Structure to design on (69 residues):
């Protein structure tokens, strides 16, 4: 009973109205990436940059980016 009452429900505040995912294959190495978010009028509303992402052969590399605007 205590576990159910102490569950972390804070994430419900961030449920998206829209979510997108994508994937691609890279050769093993270290990469940098930038994610840009645009509104429906094509205005840039957010940017997130990732540095030193290590891609290892045979293992998935997952990067998550969220824009709450």
């Amino acid at each position: 009973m205590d576990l159910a009452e102490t569950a972390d429900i804070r994430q419900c505040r961030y449920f998206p109205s829209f979510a997108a995912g994508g994937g691609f294959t890279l050769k093993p190495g270290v990469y940098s990436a930038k994610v840009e978010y645009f509104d429906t009028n094509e205005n840039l509303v957010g940017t997130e940059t990732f540095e030193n992402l290590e891609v290892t052969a045979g293992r998935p590399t997952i990067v998550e980016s969220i824009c709450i605007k």
Notes: Strands lie at 29-38, 44-55. The helical segments are 2-5. The chain has a mean pLDDT of 83.
